[in-house]
Design goal:
This protein is α/β, with parallel strands linked by helices. The chain has a single domain, classed as Rossmann fold (3-Layer(aba) Sandwich). Helix content is 21%, strand content 31%. The strands form 4 sheets. It has a 7-stranded mixed β-sheet. It has a two-stranded parallel sheet with strand order 1-4. The structure holds S-adenosylmethionine.
């Protein structure tokens, strides 16, 4: 039963993800990924599967994997100031709202059992989190200063399939070399390095994924009204040679 207070809190919150939390109760998020879910190559059912969502924000992917039957851990940080920033742009103060506020509200309404862990992917290790059959990391690496360290951590946490969904630089794909564009001084969303599609594949391999398969490329649409934009995305699956049978 969704009472008026919960509806009011949903309406007042500024959401990153559009999610249907109950019949007719939909968050108005900046990103509506629902039409693109089939591109990520998740199994229809994930019963008995342990899954990790890296950089969950409001939890769209964590709740989607839970809906398919997985036992899910979701990682994120709570304050923008703790994210990677070029020094000239780093916020000096902590914001009033923790990033996990929307996740907590959605978690309550969905009656979810996803465990949200406040931890940077840089500090996430199998010693305290264990390992996972599926690891999904969407639109996180593109914002990180050390993409390869994050990928190395993901590889150590993943005993099955890694689903990577990241923006890539289309123009650089014309070059026959694995290259990234340095973007730290632009004044939009923080991006230090924007790899070409080929470079992302090589980076997954460098981090320890022996088989890297491209599942999709598509334009992700975001925003609303006059402030809409598209982000070119590539979905890769990374699998280690020692991955359990059944990994795609
Ligand atoms: C652009 S959002 C993507 C949200 C979601 N993964 C998706 O695919 O829609 C990036 C998320 O990564 C988180 N993030 C950034 N740096 C991180 C880090 N070092 N460790 C864990 N999460 C991080 C941010 O707080 C934010 O929730």
């Amino acid at each position: 039963m969704i009472d008026d207070d919960l509806r009011r809190r949903v309406a007042q919150h500024r959401w990153y993800h559009t999610m249907e939390l109950a019949p007719g109760l939909v968050t108005h998020g900046w990103f509506d990924l629902r039409a693109d879910v089939h591109r990520y190559g998740l199994p229809e059912r994930m019963d008995g599967v342990r899954a990790l969502d890296v950089g969950t924000w409001d939890g769209f992917w964590a709740f989607e994997m839970e809906r398919r039957g997985a036992q899910v851990v979701a990682l994120d940080l709570d304050y923008e100031r703790e994210l990677d920033w070029p020094p000239r742009r780093r916020p000096t103060a902590y914001s009033a709202d923790p990033r996990g506020a929307g996740f907590a509200l959605a978690h309550e309404i969905l009656g979810s059992r996803v465990e949200r862990v406040v931890r940077s992917i840089y500090d996430a290790t199998p010693d305290d989190l264990g390992t996972f059959d599926w690891v999904l990391c969407g639109s996180v690496l593109i914002h990180l200063r050390d993409q390869l360290l994050a990928l190395e951590r993901i590889a150590s946490l993943c005993r099955g399939t890694f689903v990577s969904a990241e923006e890539y630089h289309r123009g650089l794909g014309l070059l026959p070399l694995p290259v990234s564009r340095y973007q730290a001084d632009r004044d939009r969303a923080v991006v230090f390095w924007q790899p070409s599609a080929r470079t992302w594949r090589r980076m997954l391999w460098s981090a320890g994924f022996d088989r890297v398969e491209r599942r999709a490329r598509f334009d992700m649409h975001a925003g609303e009204g006059e402030r809409t934009f598209t982000v070119r995305h590539q979905i890769l699956h990374g699998i280690k040679a020692a991955a359990a049978p059944g990994a795609t």
